[in-house]
Write a structure and sequence with these properties.
By secondary structure, this protein is an alpha+beta fold. Helix content is about 60%, strand content about 15%. It is elongated, with a radius of gyration of 30 Å.
């Protein structure tokens, strides 16, 4: 009927329709503040992640090379008075290592450095020899696809620890493959009772690297022997996945 009083349901509907946009307008500043806070937190986490990446890359790429530079310089100084030819040879190697370290430093802010196990083994053998440590190297087992970089980093860290934190006379570096499991094992016979390699961040870093690549890091700390093993159980499966499919 025209002019009849407005029904209660209609009044409720009108009130609700009015309050909803009012509530939305009141809540908008709060939501915007929360979104801005979330964006700032994401930016902070991205910065932290990048800092951790750079710190890890600096450690992996430069720690080994800087230790080698120190060793080569000390050896060159020791033999300079008695064997000038040997001293010049060590200085020549030192120059090459310095150039390699500079290239590694530049690569940190660009693409990840392309590391190869065989090349690192050559440098490791030279570094161990400079420290008076005999090296036995057997890397005849082919490196699985995609693992060259992480294996090179494991070798770098292991050899750096041996030179800096042990009394080793012999270091054995060997690669083996048992079915689908690939292993890189580095052993030395000069364990120190209070070696820093047991408590430092190096092994934690290597465990993280190995796990990211689908493997694990095993440590055996014996009475007079320290063994570090990088093990990748799915190495064969990865090779098969990368292999071309037959037509």
């Amino acid at each position: 009927m025209a002019g009849a009083a407005e029904r209660p349901g209609e009044r409720l509907h009108a009130t609700t329709a009015f309050l909803i946009p009012v509530y939305a307008l009141c809540a908008l500043p709060v939501m915007l503040a929360r979104l801005d806070e979330a964006r700032r937190e994401l930016s902070r986490l991205a910065v932290v992640k990048e800092r951790l990446r750079i710190a890890r890359d600096v450690h992996d790429l430069l720690g080994f090379q800087l230790s080698a530079l120190v060793l080569k310089g000390e050896l060159a100084a020791r033999v300079m008075a008695t064997d000038s030819d040997a001293s010049r040879a060590q200085l020549t190697e030192l120059t090459g290592l310095a150039e390699h370290a500079l290239a590694s430093l530049r690569s940190i802010t660009l693409e990840r450095a392309d590391l190869h196990l065989e090349e690192e083994a050559t440098t490791a053998r030279s570094m161990l020899a400079a420290a008076g440590i005999q090296a036995r190297v057997d890397l005849a087992t082919p490196v699985p696809r995609g693992l060259g970089g992480v294996l090179a980093i494991v070798l770098r860290e292991a050899v750096t620890n041996i030179v800096r934190h042990s009394h080793a006379r012999l270091c054995t570096i060997e690669a083996t493959r048992d079915g689908g499991t690939y292993r890189l094992r580095i052993t030395n016979d000069g364990v120190r009772p209070t070696s820093d390699e047991r408590t430092g961040t190096g092994l934690t870093n290597l465990r993280s690297r190995a796990e990211e690549a689908g493997g694990r890091l095993l440590v055996h700390d014996g009475h007079d022997r320290f063994t570090l093993t990088a093990e990748f159980p799915q190495a064969q499966a990865a090779d098969l996945a990368d292999a071309p499919t037959a037509a």
